């Protein structure tokens, strides 16, 4: 039996679909207020009878910080895919990020060791690899530095440390470090916000760039690594290194809209994060622009994707194709509302 955490999220829902299509027996944890129906919606993108597949999931209510509930979830489990995480770049979320990402992962690792799990797959992030201040290509051996880091990246780095600690204690594991994950269905969070912003009209683009990959490729990499004899290694999952200008142009093309033309200047970005900081003293809500986030845009980050390509003979889905598909799904979802 396979256990999936974060099954109601972008990666987890696509992973559940992939595993069920392979005929695997799958358990997924969800929180009290999780919207598990979203998983069925994701299945409906790829399957004529999504409900039948959805019914095969054994859902267990468990927060990754609730150890007694997790103990029940781990019953009869032989492999674990740990996708659950809190994604926020707001420095005010530091404690929640440490609690969910670091301590939650620590709980998953401890139970995986105690229950002698065959293998754990942890979804980390390119954020956990640190950033290059010189534009030098980052690979799996790059040394972590928190000079240009943000609260999310640092929580993912410390979560990864828990998984490496587990390996020292006898756990077999693989770590996947995806770039920005693109896929349909989650328009109000993560990369979904890129689609939403372009669909609503965007005139400006940020300088800099990063690595991108389709959600389908992330899932493929995870499953193939779990099914292989490979263990105790980490793998960057990036299909293409792109500037933000280029990814926004691709999304604009998918929506048949003009691409943003005006490049934001660094002095403007410095001004904006300060305004955002002041506004949040008076208005509740999440900070959208942070000093670390905006300063990191000065250095386009480039990731080496050769290791996973060679290990799995991987051929990546072109980002253009994945963006076009997500744009179609976005338009379908919004034409009825
Ligand atoms: N999206 C990206 O671009 C990206 C890039 C690189 C790495 N990653 C990593 O990929 C993984 C999956 O990301 P995603 O995009 O699928 O994120 P997502 O759509 O935001 O989903 C997050 C999932 O984690 C669950 N979760 C959060 N806190 C939890 C808790 N305390 N206990 C149990 N479950 C909890 C959420 O459940 P609810 O439904 O209850 O909220 C949801 O299922 C994460 O580890 C993320 O750090 C994502």
Give helix % range.
40-55%
Say which CATH homologous superfamily of the domain at 2-185 and 211-241 and 303-312 is assigned. Answer: NAD(P)-binding Rossmann-like Domain
Low-confidence stretches: none
C-alpha termini separation = 39 Å
Mean pLDDT rating: 92
Q: Beta-strand level of the residues, as a percent range?
A: 5-15%
Shape annotation:
globular
> Whole-number radius of gyration?
20 Å
SS-based structural class? alpha/beta
Specify the CATH architecture of the domain at 2-185 and 211-241 and 303-312.
Answer: 3-Layer(aba) Sandwich
Query: Class of the domain at 2-185 and 211-241 and 303-312 in CATH?
Result: Alpha Beta
Number of helices: 13
State the major sheet.
Answer: 7 strands, parallel
Major beta sheet, strand line-up: 3-2-1-4-5-6-10
List the ions, cofactors and other small molecules found in this model: NADP nicotinamide-adenine-dinucleotide phosphate
Order of SSEs, N→C? EHEHHEHEHEHEEHEEHEEHEHHHH
């Amino acid at each position: 039996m396979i256990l999936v955490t974060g099954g109601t999220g972008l990666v987890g829902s696509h992973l559940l679909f992939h595993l069920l299509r392979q005929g695997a027996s799958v358990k997924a944890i969800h929180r009290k207020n999780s919207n598990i129906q979203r998983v069925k919606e994701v299945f409906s993108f790829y399957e004529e009878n999504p409900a039948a597949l959805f019914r095969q999931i054994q859902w267990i209510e468990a927060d990754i910080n609730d150890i007694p509930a997790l103990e029940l979830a781990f019953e009869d489990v032989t492999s674990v895919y740990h996708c659950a995480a809190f994604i926020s770049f707001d420095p005010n979320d530091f404690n929640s990020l440490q609690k969910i990402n670091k301590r939650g992962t620590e709980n998953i690792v401890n139970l995986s060791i105690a229950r002698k799990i065959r293998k754990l797959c942890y979804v980390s992030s390119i954020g956990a690899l640190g950033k290059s201040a010189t534009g030098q290509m980052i690979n799996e051996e790059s040394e972590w530095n928190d000079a240009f880091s943000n609260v999310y990246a640092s929580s993912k780095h410390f979560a990864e440390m828990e998984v490496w600690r587990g390996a020292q204690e006898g756990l077999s594991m693989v770590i996947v470090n995806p770039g920005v994950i693109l896929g349909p269905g989650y328009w109000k969070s993560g990369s979904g916000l890129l689609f939403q912003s372009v669909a609503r009209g965007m005139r400006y683009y940020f300088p800099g760039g990063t690595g991108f990959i389709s959600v389908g490729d992330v899932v493929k990499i995870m499953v193939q690594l779990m099914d292989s004899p490979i263990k105790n290694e980490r793998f960057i999952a990036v299909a293409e290194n792109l500037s933000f200008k280029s990814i926004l142009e691709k999304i604009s093309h998918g929506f048949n809209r003009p691409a943003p033309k005006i490049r934001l200047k660094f002095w403007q970005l410095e001004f904006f994060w300060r305004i955002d900081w002041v506004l949040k003293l008076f208005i509740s809500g999440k900070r959208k622009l942070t000093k670390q986030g905006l300063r990191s845009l000065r250095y386009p980050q480039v990731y080496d994707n050769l290791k996973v390509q060679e290990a799995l003979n991987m051929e990546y889905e072109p980002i253009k194709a994945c963006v076009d598909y997500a744009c179609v799904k976005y338009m379908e979802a919004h034409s009825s509302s």
